[in-house]
TrEMBL record:
InterPro entries: Nase/OxRdtase_comp1 (IPR000510). Pfam families: Oxidored_nitro. This is Nitrogenase/oxidoreductase component 1 domain-containing protein. It comes from Christensenella minuta. It comes from the Bacteria. GO terms for molecular function: oxidoreductase activity. Residues 39-410 form the Nitrogenase/oxidoreductase component domain. SUPFAM superfamilies: Helical backbone' metal receptor (SSF53807).
Length: 431
């Protein structure tokens, strides 16, 4: 399940905008994918996973876990038709999870039992196995995680529910630390980020799940004062953390708009009760890097795909405003926060193509576009260019530092050629 495949999070663009996204027979390119739900959940330290489902459902997860060398933290329980018909599904999970935990030394702090679509269809009573397991193994918290693509069009698709599951494991504390959590990004925000620096100057620690080695250390995220939500996938989790743990949150997503970066930084500081920063030097540096990159590209066409960044239209607008030759935007959806940018592009740069990468008509539309600079794997696949900025879900980009990092990567990759097939494998993408 790709983390972006959810209509409840990414809204359809308005038909009158001139760019209509359609639902039809889909093509899945070999370069399509992102972090799997399993990989996201493995960020919880000292956790182990038991994946339960039909063999066909777990095949791609199994192969990708081997490629990423994380298969030592996951076991597999294949479910047959006979197990479903006989009514032994819950008991089968209980017996196998019990056997697994009984043999593990040391035992994990968390056992995540992943279930698939059939679990929803069966109406499983999870307490049949959760109750006995948590009673018998009190030092291991056993929970259920959902890998069910049939919920992808609903309010709680897997990529959203897994964020809630992950952060439900954090600790509870009435007394909060002077700290903020960055949630929603797979990678930590780069440490040279200007907002992180400003928070540090004001005595506020910045936290991200990737920095923790032990489960007890990870639980300190529940003591933070504020959740800074950097992608829409974590909004539901942030709302639940406010209800359960009393942690305030703000939706301050990755942006390529100078005005939005300034506004969001001021919003974070207002919530924390600290002075708003002056990032004029950082803004000037970012503008300088943009102009350097514009000169370096010398009119080379640029293609952007929505798996690389949650803000493909915002990034395209920034580049177009400074004179870059943005050729194509590959996007299946348009975030509500991106509507203005998309409409601006359609109005002022009619030559920019907006294409749905999963549309059945996409194969064969491009051939031999070797000079494109492609931001994202699917853009590279469809253009056929070896010049790729290998970015997924914005990486660690954020704020002016994120723009600077993007410009540096664009300049570097102009002179570098990749074997896309190998690059995709090395990146561990999972459909």
């Amino acid at each position: 399940m790709r983390e972006r495949d959810t209509k409840s999070i990414l809204a359809r663009a308005d038909r009158e905008s001139g760019c209509e996204f359609v639902t039809t027979l889909q093509y899945s390119s070999p370069a399509r994918g992102g972090w799997s739900i399993v990989r996201m959940a493995m960020q919880v330290p000292e956790s182990y996973q038991l994946f339960v489902g039909p063999s066909a459902c777990m095949r791609h997860i199994m192969l990708s876990s081997m490629e990423l060398k994380i298969d030592d933290r996951i076991s597999w329980l294949p479910i047959r038709e006979a197990d479903i018909v006989s009514g032994s599904y819950e008991q089968l999970i209980l017996e196998n999870a019990d056997e697994l935990l009984g043999k593990m030394d040391p035992q994990p702090r968390v056992l995540m039992i992943f279930v698939t679509c059939i679990d929803n269809l069966l109406g499983t009573d999870h307490e049949v196995f959760l109750g006995p397991l948590n009673e018998k193994y009190p030092d291991t918290r056993t929970i259920v995680c959902f890998m069910n693509p049939i919920t992808g069009d609903g309010p709680a698709p897997p990529a959203v529910t897994i964020q809630d599951t992950i952060y439900s494991l954090t600790g509870d504390a009435e007394q909060k630390d002077r700290a903020v959590n960055f949630i929603g990004s797979n990678l930590a925000i780069e440490r040279d980020n200007e907002l992180i620096g400003w928070l540090g100057q004001n005595g506020i620690e910045s936290r991200h799940i990737s920095q923790y080695k032990t489960f007890d250390e990870f639980r300190e995220m529940g003591k933070s004062t504020l959740n800074i939500v950097t992608s829409p996938l974590a909004l539901y989790a942030a709302k639940q953390m406010k209800l359960r743990k009393g942690i305030d949150y703000g939706y301050f997503p990755v942006s390529y708009s100078f005005d939005e970066i300034e506004r969001d930084a001021a919003g974070v500081c207002e919530k924390l009760g600290i002075p708003a920063p002056d990032f004029s030097k950082e803004k000037q540096k970012a503008e300088g890097k943009i102009l350097e990159t514009l000169k370096s590209l010398a009119g080379r066409p640029v293609s952007i795909d929505y798996a690389a960044t949650y803000r493909p239209f915002g990034l395209a607008r920034l580049l177009l405003e400074y004179g870059f030759r943005v050729d194509t935007i590959f996007s299946s959806e348009c975030l509500p926060v991106e509507r203005e940018d998309m409409n601006w592009i359609l109005k002022n740069h009619r030559g920019v193509k907006v294409l749905q990468p999963e549309h059945f008509s996409m194969p064969g539309q491009f051939a031999g576009s070797k000079q494109h600079l492609c931001i994202g794997f699917e853009a590279a696949y469809f253009t056929g260019s070896p010049h790729v900025v290998p970015l997924a879900a914005d990486g660690g980009h954020y704020g002016y530092a994120g723009i600077i990092s993007m410009m540096e990567k664009m300049r570097r990759e102009c002179g570098h050629e990749y074997d896309l097939e190998q690059l995709v494998k090395d990146s561990g993408l999972v459909v």
